[in-house]
Write a structure and sequence with these properties.
Order of helices and strands: EHEEHEEH
Structural class: alpha+beta
Number of strands: 5
Radius of gyration: 13 Å
Low-confidence stretches: none
Strand content: 15-25%
Strand order of the largest sheet: 1-4-5-3-2
């Protein structure tokens, strides 16, 4: 099981263009679910913050399942899930996250 912390930004220097690419990548992967999948409510390429809502599931339930089953830590804000990316996150980690969400949904 991987350990992936997407709860807060890390103040390490990084390439802003890479952060923008990571943000677009995760936003596109979340959109791959289509109807019944997560709905991206906001996405900021400058900060790497993506807020999504998962129909018929609470943000807390999604966050708890990701951490318990797959070692992925995300923030829950009410009914929403917040993914906070940093330039140090690997594209492979985002694909792992997508696969875990796919297994869960």
């Amino acid at each position: 099981m991987r350990a992936l912390d997407l709860r807060r930004p890390y103040p390490l220097p990084g390439d802003p263009a890479r952060l923008a690419r990571l943000t677009r990548h995760l936003e596109a992967r979340l959109g791959d679910f289509g109807t019944g999948g997560p709905l991206v409510l906001s996405s900021c390429q400058d900060t790497g913050r993506i807020v999504a809502r998962f129909p018929n599931r609470s943000g807390q339930a999604i966050a708890a399942a990701l951490e318990h089953n797959w070692g992925i830590q995300v923030a829950a804000e009410g009914e929403h899930v917040v993914f906070q990316l940093s330039p140090q996150v690997l594209f492979e980690d985002l694909d792992y996250l997508w696969g875990c969400l796919f297994s869960m949904l």
